[in-house]
Design goal:
Blueprint (H helix, E strand, L loop, with lengths): L32 H7 L6 E5 L4 H12 L6 E6 L7 E4 L2 E4 L1 E2 L10 E4 L3 H13 L3 E4 L33 E4 L3 H16 L2 E10 L6 H15 L18 E2 L11 H14 L5 E8 L6 E9 L5 H10 L3 E3 L11 H4 L5 E8 L8 E8 L3 H15 L1
Parallel strand pairs: 1-2, 1-6, 2-5, 6-7, 7-8, 9-11, 13-14
Antiparallel strand pairs: 3-4, 9-12, 10-11, 12-15, 14-15
Helix pairs in contact: 2-9, 4-6, 4-9
Length: 381
């Protein structure tokens, strides 16, 4: 059967993103009075955003506003060097406060995106103060007793955590590449158990933060002018180049980013036997990751059924038009919430319908980080 194109409402109409639009969204400064009424509520939880001046911290605010997340108060927390800065969020001005051990008194939900060392130091402090911490770093992902959650995939993992119980808790946000991958693969895994998964990632500058995005833009301008590129974030030229992901390489030859996909998939699926291997590559794309995924199933699953399953999967959009060669691209999903999947086809190296190849794209800052964390927070309401 010839694949047809299915396009989600988020992808209908509008101009293609401009180069500058692929940078992190600015902190929202205005919203409708209706949205403000929906968000500011005395009966809502108090929030704190840790690392608010970073790329993901800014996206936290954008997602909170976009989804009219209810709150009675919100603290803007960052490092000492950012303290004192003023931010306008939903028509109210806030002063960024220095993160300290006293920052979490009276905070119900704390969204963390300030790096693993900060999370390790202040995450338990916040939890001990009664806050439910949703942490975007790798600090607690593999800790026993800390749920590792993708709301569309394994919501039951955090069902024991209740807001307002007086007890704090830690909840981990998975790695961006794991979230993007499992959003598309899990619906297929639920239909026919995945025995083996081979993932190749093509990861954007956004995964390394705002400074990396700025350096990619700078290098692009420099190289086009014949100048030597500035290499501060990465040790080598990034513009018009690609290289193995910059995470540290382990003794087994895999880097940490690749092993996150292995370990996190097993924990999220609660399946220690699933075989996962990954190769992670940094590509000169401003925003949004792409992944090529090869799957081996325990039972037959043909491409037509797989396509229908993915069309119905929450948070997933199918873009799979072979006639005009239209498939997901990072540019198309930048600043979008849904994960796009295409190139859905039978793996001809396997007999029968026991294998599939798919291609996935997702915005690392939205679903790969901030959106997933806010969705976790929404499950606490």
């Amino acid at each position: 059967m010839q694949a047809t194109s299915v396009v989600h409402r988020h992808f209908l109409g509008g101009d293609a993103p401009t180069f500058s639009s692929l940078r992190p969204k600015p902190i929202p400064t205005t919203t409708t009075s209706f949205a403000i009424r929906m968000s500011l509520r005395e009966d809502a939880p108090s929030l704190a955003v840790v690392g608010v001046t970073g790329a993901v911290g800014q996206e936290f605010l954008s997602v909170l506003s976009d989804r009219s997340f209810p709150y009675r108060s919100i603290k803007m927390l960052a490092s000492k060097r950012s303290a004192g800065k003023k931010l306008t969020f939903e028509d109210n001005e806030y002063v960024v406060e220095e993160l300290t051990a006293d920052s979490f008194n009276g905070v119900n939900i704390a969204l963390f995106s300030a790096g693993g060392s900060i999370s390790k130091e202040f995450g338990p402090i916040a939890a001990n103060c009664g806050s439910v911490v949703v942490d975007n770093s790798s600090a607690f992902r593999m800790d026993d007793g800390v749920p590792l959650v993708i709301p569309e995939v394994n919501p039951d993992a955090m069902s024991h955590i209740k807001l307002g119980s007086g007890k704090g808790a830690l909840i981990a946000n998975p790695n961006c590449s794991t979230i993007i991958c499992l959003m598309a693969v899990t619906p297929l895994h639920q239909r026919s158990k995945v025995l083996r998964m081979v993932v190749s990632t093509y990861q954007a500058a956004s995964g390394a933060g705002a400074a990396a995005m700025e350096e990619l833009e700078l290098q692009t301008r420099e190289v086009l002018k014949g100048k030597k590129p500035t290499c501060k974030i990465f040790k080598q030229q990034y513009a018009f180049n690609l290289f193995s992901h910059n995470a540290p390489v382990l003794s087994n030859g895999y880097n940490e980013e690749e092993m996150k996909l292995v370990k996190e998939t097993r924990k999220i699926w609660n399946d220690k036997d699933v075989k996962v291997t990954a190769t992670c590559i940094r590509v000169p794309v401003m925003r949004a990751h792409a992944e090529s995924v090869n799957l081996q199933f325990a039972n037959p699953l043909d491409e037509d059924e797989a396509r229908e399953i993915l069309k119905k999967a929450p948070g997933v959009v199918v873009i799979d038009d072979r006639v005009v060669n239209n498939f997901p691209t990072p540019l198309e999903v930048s600043n979008k919430d849904d994960v796009a999947v295409g190139r859905i086809r039978r793996d001809v190296s396997q007999d029968g319908n026991y294998g599939l190849d798919i291609f996935i794209c997702g915005d690392q800052i939205r679903k790969g980080a901030a959106l997933n964390a806010v969705q976790i927070a929404e499950m606490l309401l």
